[in-house]
């Protein structure tokens, strides 16, 4: 993707221009555990290029420009990290009494998925000098919260969806009552898991992490965005600032928490944490812009969930307000800004976050 000058476009986005602080007002009255080295070359001074999230044509073009630039093996990195996260989730939420509720929790929690949020948490921890083990409970917690939001979002009283990650949604398998309770149980256990299972971290940092996660889920985060999103269905006068409020809270808040939790638990200083917070807000908004584009350009089979449901629900989206091409340009601008925020960090340790920003920008489902 080529870099695009969107100054005139972005100037019309009041919340994005002050992305460092989420609005607190509503705009009207969401492998094996073994040593691993993803870099083919170790000594370099620039950020590594990202191979596995680009098209073959883009890879060839990039290598022609700088054949000496080391390639970061993103696919191997994600397989390794997702594998360790899946093992940790399986161990954390074991099948025990009452059997049915734990079956329902595990059904959605272990249904697959890209594990972007927990991997962001682990990568941020390691970027600031921490060890993976310090952030693994938090990484599991953000995935538990994310899974809760998906279970509840799919309910008939919300988005009324039958398909999630290529499988029947939780309430279709276990019934609405158990689905609600499974989401509730995952949410409460997420906080317990951070508080009880985090090791090698000072109590003050654990408390700070719990506070960050709670804020991201509540009325200053996911819930706020969800409420405004529901209230916006069918409205015809929704602007970009309104839409941005929804997604900075409903989607970006939990992605932000994932990165911030990792940085806090890994021992990052305040400046590092805040710089990574800004990075996370950029990729959080980017995630939703891309999601909106995919919803109208991909099939349900390709997405693993129902395609076109926002259109059917008459929800406001970026393509609806800006068109697909302008939405793609905005996504590219967000990705570029996110990567620039990582300048100044160790380029080797920053490579996974650079790769994740590119992956979010270029993903196809």
UniProtKB/TrEMBL annotation:
Stated family: Belongs to the FPP/GGPP synthase family.
Keywords: Carotenoid biosynthesis, Isoprene biosynthesis, Magnesium, Metal-binding, Transferase
Pathway(s) per entry: Isoprenoid biosynthesis; farnesyl diphosphate biosynthesis; farnesyl diphosphate from geranyl diphosphate and isopentenyl diphosphate: step 1/1; Isoprenoid biosynthesis; geranylgeranyl diphosphate biosynthesis; geranylgeranyl diphosphate from farnesyl diphosphate and isopentenyl diphosphate: step 1/1; Isoprenoid biosynthesis; geranyl diphosphate biosynthesis; geranyl diphosphate from dimethylallyl diphosphate and isopentenyl diphosphate: step 1/1
SUPFAM superfamilies noted in UniProt: Terpenoid synthases (SSF48576)
Classification via CDD domains: Trans_IPPS_HT
Source organism of the structure: Hibiscus sabdariffa (roselle)
Protein's recorded name: Geranylgeranyl diphosphate synthase
Domain of life: Eukaryota
Xref: NCBIfam families: FPPsyn
Cofactors named for this entry: Mg(2+)
